[in-house]
Amino acid sequence: MKKNTIVTGGTVLGILALALLKSRRSIPRGAVAVKPFDIKKYLGKWYEIARLDFRFEKDLNNTTAHYSLNSDGSVKVTNRGYNYRTRAWKESVGKARFVSSPDEGRLKVSFFGPFYSGYNVLAIDPGYKYALIAGKNLKYLWLLSRETSLPPNIKEDYLSLAGKLGFHTEKLVWVEHDQ
Asked: Within the chain, which residues score under 50 in pLDDT?
């Protein structure tokens, strides 16, 4: 009798754990990733124009992200920035994989082994020069450009979209590119 109870209890816990894992969001509620998305056009160097600050990018300016394809089909992500307090460059290398379909700008990225987080392309221009990126929730937002600035109309459009989704755009850190 005890054996059946343990097996049944274990099965129920396993199902609940699986359901919990599947319910974890990797994109903010209401947000929709770009589709169609072309990873080959997205590859290369991007300048971070603005971000919602968080501990891994604290005190960084001159921040860039470089994306390239790995031989296994994943995307190599190299983030780099200059810490203006310590006066040292900081670099992090990770990898990204598509969450579902490679024609959807919805990826998961990892800089720490098996731990992934959402990386969602919410808006991109047809020439793949400007992008609005969200993390897994409303705490992570980036405005990216192929150049060190963003045209005013693109900036307004992206800030408007982010605001409608609930991002606190007034808290954005506007990145300096002076080195």
From this structure: 12-23
Number of domains composing the chain: 1
Q: Is 9 helix (H, G, I), strand (E, B) or coil?
A: helix
Token pair 């929730």 in the structure block, residue? 137
pLDDT in tens, 88-109: 999 999 999 999 999 999 999 9
**Which domain, by its residues, includes 136?**
27-174
The DSSP code sequence of 111-161 is EETTEEEEEEEEEE-TTS-EEEEE-SSTT-EEEEESSSS--HHHHHHHHHH
119: buried, middle or exposed (CB in 10 Å: 19+, 13-18, 0-12)?
buried
Distance CA(170)–CA(53), nearest Å, equals: 12
Which CATH number does the domain housing residue 146 bear? 2.40.128.20
Cβ pair 118, 26 in contact under 8 A: yes
Query: Is 12 a domain residue?
Result: no
H or E element that contains 46: strand 44-52
